[in-house]
Amino acid sequence: MRIVTATVAALAFAAMAVPAATLAPPRSPVTDGVWRTDGYGTLLVLGQGGLRQYQTTSVSCIEGDSARQTGPVSYTTSDGTVLTVRTGRDDDHARIAEDGSVGHRELTRIRTLPDDCGRPASKDPRAGFDALWQTFEENYPFFGRKGVDWHAVRDRYRPQVHRNTTGPELFGIFSRMLKPLYDVHVTVEDGERDFFEVRPGTEPPSEELDDRAKRFIEARDLKDATHRQDFAEGYITYADLRDDLGYLRISAFDHFAGADAPYTAHRTELDRALDTVLTPSRIRRLKGLIIDLRVNDGGYDALGIRTAGRLTDTPYTAYAKRVRNDPADHTRHTRPEPVPVVPADAPRYTGPVAVLTGGSTVSAGETFTQALFDRTGRTVRIGRPTQGVFSDPLTRSLPGDMFFTLPNEEYLTRTGRTFDGTGIPPDLTEPVFTGEEFAKNRDSAFDRAVAVLRAHG
Prior knowledge:
Elements: H1 2-11, E1 33-37, E2 42-47, E3 50-57, E4 60-69, E5 74-76, E6 82-87, E7 93-98, E8 105-110, H2 125-139, H3 143-146, H4 150-157, H5 167-178, E9 187-189, E10 194-195, H6 207-220, E11 226-231, E12 236-241, E13 245-250, H7 263-277, H8 280-285, E14 288-292, H9 301-308, E15 316-323, E16 337-341, E17 353-357, H10 364-371, E18 379-383, E19 393-398, E20 402-407, E21 409-412, E22 428-429, H11 435-439, H12 444-456
Parallel strand pairs: 13-14, 14-17, 17-18, 18-22
Antiparallel strand pairs: 1-2, 1-8, 2-3, 3-4, 4-5, 5-6, 6-7, 7-8, 9-10, 9-20, 11-12, 12-13, 15-16, 15-21, 19-20
Helix pairs in contact: 9-10
């Protein structure tokens, strides 16, 4: 599913070997050593020209993925993602940042890896079950919000796992125990199957839904539009509407330069599209802009923040991120880190905006929606609540080529509110791509946006 692959590609360290022949010349930067993240259940080993990741819980330590050193403080994964590590207030504290993500992860130096990190991971299915259950127990913030008794889940499903439980059987057990979370960022994959579950009453974004919605919009809403253009592999569309309104559709915050391109290439394509759309002459003429996110499968949060920077003349805080960081207490978190929106050094539109959302607005599509809350120009949300998944997925490996993801972060509004599970509600409720809307050739959310912008333009 594209939600998962787009987001995981932006977050997880890409699996790769670090052969000795490809290592950078020997060097000993101050960041060499073993580091523990604040939250995230991760240990990092830096040195000998590379970075190694270890995924830890109180019952497991599994070696994860690697990256090669490509600069004094930078490491690059096989997919081109750049990780930057810099020391903090002293040589025993540091921060790691990742291309395309927003915020940082705090690191504290430790003396050495725990002994269990040097042992081969057990292939016993019971050990795999325990590692997955304990990872959620120590990191997942939303059991109370989802009404799930995680200890009761263990009591029910742990006895079903035995030494001879097969991979497909274990995958089925994991799927059944995780389904009640209804969290798209909770996934399991084993190379042949993948599991995820959307919020009840919603439809996940897919190529089929995206194509159908796009054809419908072009035939109905844009039939009289002018200067219609597609950008970024078709993931961005712009058109001028009547009455000096504009229409901007963004169906992902990824894929702009192709599936395998690094973040910087996607950023370049986004800038090219926005530079073409937001010209000074068009900005002077526009009385309102519709931003359509009703089918948006997520991607890089940083691209959403970059887009928000083209919609304001005033710096402000998009949201603050915090992460659960006490394995024994689900109410403990890191200090929230504000994520700023900085006005772009390029032409900017600051007039009225109508944002169209629905249950197929997912992940980075939602964080971008949240990033517009406090922009100074009038902003109104129209449609249905978003999917309700904001966190960068935490990716974990299990023996047998199985991996799973889960969220462990919260994105806070300025009043401390989060929208995980429920999604961001619209200001004005309208149906979004229902069977009746398609059958009767209606697009109520689009029509409401046009009416609102005409009235307030």
